[in-house]
Structure formats: structure tokens, C-alpha cells
Amino acid sequence: MSLDDDARVELAALEAAHRLRVPRVVEGVQGPTIVIDGQEVTCLASNDYLSLAGDRRLVAAAIASLETEGLGAGASRLITGTQRSHVALERRVADWMQCTGVRLFNTGFAANVGVLGTLAGAGDRVFSDELNHASIIDGCRLSKADVEVFPHGNLASLERALERGGGRRRIVVTESLFSMDGDVADLVALAALCRRFDAALIVDEAHAIGAHGPEGRGLCAAAGVVPEVIIGTFGKALGTFGAFAATTEAIAALLWNRARPFVFSTALPPSIPAATLAALEIVRGAEGDHRRRILAGHARLFRELVPVAGGAPDSAIAPLVVGDDLEVMRLSAHLLSEGLFVQGIRPPTVPAGTARLRVSLNAGHTVEQVRFAAERLHNAARQREIS
Fold this sequence. Notes:
The protein is 43% helix and 17% strand. It is of the alpha/beta class. β2 and β3 form a beta hairpin.
């Protein structure tokens, strides 16, 4: 068969398993209310946690950069792609994250693959939480290190694995705020284990950066934990695009030379770092604190009204596990018909049998919108006996 024939067979199999994904089109600016496929709805599916993606200050900063620096970077950072906005953002993030080295990446996926592929290799051992993001999984695989996956959040299992020894270098990698479950890693205990067994700690803070911690520096900062590398993204709470590795000066320099997704990619358009600098000013200041308080309040209120919602009390991510793939998509469609968009998440994004509605709250939601969403989700959960 041709490649096209193979693709059609595979698509048919996905459809039969109720796992076929199809695009939805959003018109206009991202926000708590969006127009999706022509219908205006309250959106509880976006990672725009601080509701900055449509902020006019970020737009103005991007426009000013377009006027002075143009559209494309033209080449990789190692050639002619490094412009003043890239350098300024790396310096500003280093100041924000209180570290000595920062490297920008085009996406969070590229950052995890680049960092793990650079810092781990053949003969090393990497210990990875079983619910880590796909980018961490792929980074572990591409590193060619020996990878041991430990049960989600199971520190006793990780301790036993570390006790077995072996490996030229040992690295523990975890998310801080897990993207599909909304729960939080025990970062203090993880750091203690790493110190005890002389292992490095790498933490992906993609869903916590901006939304948690002092100045929005994430859950590691909130816990007083300093990993060897923190991965953060700009495309979620900061409302722009791209990602970073916050680390030491030496590791940042090594990433410049060895991280393949960085070395072999055209640099971010300079308007993106320019907009991110504007976002960072908001996130670090009093307005950022205010938005984080609103977001945490929304999270607590939603869980009070929908007791079956999972995740940590202050987490913007509040999943409702349905189980069946077809049922979760039927439920998502039903809610959409009532003016509420909540994405149904199915395997392989989540383990088989745990398909869920992934509720994602934003600071820009009103209390009325949170109550509206909670009422409909609570009714749906009660009718379908979701627990």
C-alpha cells in the first residue's frame, strides 16, 4: 500500500477507537470567552492562565519590535539569528529566576528534548515520573541514557531505584505541576533524595511558571528548591510563545553548543521576545500577584462547587475523569451545546481508561463564569455518576 493508504487505515482505526482528533478553529483574540467554530462560548480549555494572550500591552510591544527588528530572525541563534530582544529576554529571565544562565528555546517540547539530550547520554541513568509530558519522554529516549520510569509521585519507588546505583551520571526529571492531573510533585522530598544519592534534578515548570510562586517564578521557588535546570514556557501563563531553560552559566553555554533543537532551528522571531519582556513586567509586579490571587480563588471556588474535580486546591487544572473515550467526547459536545467549551482528553495523552474533561481556569474568568461552568459540570458529573 502507499503511504496515503496506510494513513487512511490508521485514521480509520483511530476513529473506530473514538480517538480521532479534528481541528477546531478560533476566531479573534484568545480569552475567557472565545468564538470557536463560529459559536461564542465560555472557554475552560486554554493554558492562558493569567489571561495575557490577548493583552494589548503585549501586542504593542510586538508591533514596536516588528517596526524595528523585522519579522523573521533569518537564521539560528548561532549564526545571525541573535538579536537584541533575544539577549535582553535571556538576561531578564536570569534575573527573574535568580540564576546565572538562561537559554531560550522555540517551544517547551524543544527545550525538554534539547536539555535532556545534552545533559544525559549513554552510560547515564535518568529517572522519570510515569506521568511526565511527552516531550520529557522523547527527550529521555533521544538521550540514549538508561531510563527508569517510576510510578507517579512514588518517592519510595524512586528511592529504591536510586539505591540500586549505577550510571555515570544520574538525573531525576519531573514536572512540578502535572499538565493533565493538576497535581503537584513533592519537590522538597525530590530534592532531598537527589542530594542524598548525588543525582541531578531537572524540573519542568511549564504549567506553574507565571501562575505560582513569588513573582510567578513557579513551584520550585515557592518550595525553596533550586534544581540544576528549570524548564519554563512563555506560551501559557505569560501569553506569548517559546520556552527557556534556567540554569547555570556553564550549562547554558553547553546548551548553546550542543542542544540540537536550539542549534539547528531558526531563532524565535524577535517580536516574540519583545512581547515576552512586556509580559514579564506584568507577571513580576503587583498586577501579576493580583492575577495569581484571582486564579487561585477561581480554582478553590470551582472545587468547592465540583467536589469530584481533581488536582491541587490552587491549581488552575481541574480534571474530571470520565474513563470512556467515546463518553468523554459526547460530554464535551454536550457542554459545548450549552455554551461551555471543555476539551475531552483521551489516550495516548492520558493513560487508557482515564479519558477526562480537562478544566483549565484563567484569571480573566469572572466569578459568574466559574459558577456557570461549575454548575454545568457538576450536573453532568452527577448524571453520569462521575466520581
